[in-house]
Design brief:
alpha/beta; two-stranded antiparallel ribbon; zinc; single chain; nucleus; General transcription and DNA repair factor IIH subunit TFB4; 8 helices; six-stranded mixed β-sheet
Length: 305
């Protein structure tokens, strides 16, 4: 079967940007209370100043490269930019035209997205902002749907990969949906790169990058985020075979229980649907299978002999 790829160095980068207002609101408080410019604190304004030039550099590396930007907040997710939609109208415009178009479209669509995400509802509890997670599972699903549409098209297509830039903590309630997306990406041979800019490591993204063969990175100095993005994540899949990229020191493979949505070290697994529970149950809440709990009698010393 003939390959549908353009060449080895043509890429389709689907960038997932975390615009959760709960996370960036906490980052804003840290920047205002800090007297000195801390390299571990990044405001949303500076975040865009690092990410947008990086996305522009992807388009400049190869005229056939494509960039798709998906934003996800506390309640919703959606497409905010697609470079393939502007190539036809900018056929006679140089690279600077594409760069300015990306910035204008991303900023305009991002402002509209944040307003719509706010209207969807953040909840009445203000204390939930401290631990609110973003819609990572939904953004991964949107990215995979777009990639599948490109892969199944009749024309030549670039090599797709997903880049997640996340700051919000993981949402244990999204465990099943995120893992389904990870295995779908693995089956489609789509790497998931992860750049975590939050305080804690992301268990979901660690597993996503490990399973799909992507790169996981948590930058130590956020004031140099553009350098991290350009040196690590701008590399196409073919060139990664010849360079040394960061390798994960350790991967947290702990799962989340289906009953309380909490991360657990040990649990009980349904033998029918493989649902995970932190405590024993008489019946599986997922598939309805009934569990038998026989009382095991202690083995006598004579039987042991």
């Amino acid at each position: 079967m003939a390959s549908k790829l353009y060449t080895d160095d043509v890429s389709l980068v689907v960038a997932l940007l975390d615009v959760n207002p709960f996370f960036w609101g906490g980052a804003l408080k840290k920047t205002t209370t800090t007297t000195t410019n801390s390299p571990s604190v990044l405001s949303f304004y500076n975040f865009l100043n690092h990410v947008l030039p990086f996305l522009n550099s992807i388009l400049l590396l190869n005229q056939l490269n494509q960039v798709v930007v998906i934003a996800y907040g506390a309640n919703t997710c959606g497409y905010i930019y697609d470079s393939s939609e502007t190539k036809t109208s900018e056929a006679g415009v140089g690279g600077s035209g594409r760069m300015s178009d990306l910035c204008e479209r991303v900023l305009g669509s991002l402002e509209e997205f944040v307003v719509n995400d706010q209207r969807t509802g953040w909840g009445a509890d203000p204390t939930a902002a401290n631990a609110a997670s973003g819609m990572l599972s939904g953004s991964l699903s949107l990215a995979l749907c777009y990639i599948q549409r490109v892969l199944r098209g009749g024309l030549l297509h670039p090599q797709p990969r997903i880049l997640c830039v996340q700051g919000s903590p993981d949402g244990p309630e999204q465990y099943v949906a995120v893992m389904n997306s990870i295995f779908s990406a693995q089956r489609s041979m789509v790497p998931i790169d992860s750049c975590v800019i939050g305080v804690q490591h992301s268990t979901f993204l660690q597993q996503a990058s490990y399973i799909t063969g992507g790169v996981y990175l948590k930058p130590q100095q956020l004031d140099g985020l553009f350098q991290y993005l350009s040196m690590v994540f701008a590399t196409d899949l073919h060139s990664r075979n010849f360079i040394q990229l960061p390798k994960p020191v350790g991967v947290d493979f702990r799962a989340s229980c289906f009953c309380h949505k909490k991360t657990i070290d040990m649990g009980y697994v349904c033998s029918v649907c493989l649902s995970i529970f932190c405590k024993q149950h008489k019946k599986c809440s997922t598939c309805g299978s009934e569990f038998n709990h026989p009382h095991l009698e202690p083995i006598s010393t004579s039987e042991q002999k």
